[in-house]
Amino acid sequence: MPPMSTLLAFGLVSLGMVLTPGPNMIYLISRSICQGRRAGLLSLGGVALGFVFYMFCAAFGITALVLTVPYAYDALRVAGALYLAYLAWQALKPGGRSAFQVRQLPHDSRRKLFTMGFVTNLANPKIAVMYLSLLPQFISPGHGSVLAQSLALGCVQIAVSVSVNALIASMAGSIAGFLARRPGWALVQRWLMGTVLAGLAVRIALESRS
């Protein structure tokens, strides 16, 4: 296990990173404003699962393998961007419906909220690069199992990220009730989510691994 001083230092670095606006924060804020606090927190659960997935991949060396295989990184990035672009088109096309609109979600809307949060995080391979580049800076072979240290540090990052994003999603969600009572909000909601998803798709598509 890493010493407490290392965990605290890593926690501060993680806090600085999560406070920097990125795809996850933009997605969760938009989701919470459009559909409410509960939807934002359910989506955050999916985002957190995405972090867990990437953490285990980094800890077991799978991430390093993917990044060394030609075109594997780009394939993951492009697939994620295409999925987000598809969701954006569903919201923005004439007569389209937002994928996040409450009354148009199927009965298993909670599962869909969770799944979309997971896929949105998974669609950004920058998370994998972050774990692969950041974790080794705080790992020392003298402190025991490298795997155990990687998992401990990953848990710290996830805890910090979930705590901060839960607060942000809750605050954004409180706006949803106010906006829902305003005429024309359904149209604004559809365009807001479509624009956000399209922006995230472009951002992910244009990102390089460096």
What does it look like?
- It is found in: Cell membrane.
- This protein is mostly helical.
- It has one domain (4-206).
- The protein contains nine helices and no strands.
- The protein has helices at 4-18, 23-35, 37-59, 62-68, 72-92, 109-122, 126-134, 146-180, 185-206.
- The protein starts with a helix and ends with a helix.
- 38% of the residues are buried.
Termini Cα gap: 30 Å
Can you write the helix and strand succession as a string? Answer: HHHHHHHHH
Mean pLDDT: 76
Strand element count: 0
Task: List unreliable stretches of 5+ residues.
Answer: 97-108
Strand content: under 5%
Please bin the fraction of helical residues: over 70%
**Approximate shape:** globular
Protein topology:
Blueprint: H1 4-18, H2 23-35, H3 37-59, H4 62-68, H5 72-92, H6 109-122, H7 126-134, H8 146-180, H9 185-206
Helix pairs in contact: 1-8, 2-3, 2-8, 2-9, 3-6, 3-7, 3-8, 5-9
Organism: Burkholderia cenocepacia
Keywords: Cell membrane, Membrane, Transmembrane, Transmembrane helix
Pfam family, one: LysE
Summarize the structure.
Keywords: Cell membrane, Membrane, Transmembrane, Transmembrane helix. With 210 residues, the chain is mainly α.
Q: Any descriptors?
A:
9 helices; 210 residues; mainly alpha
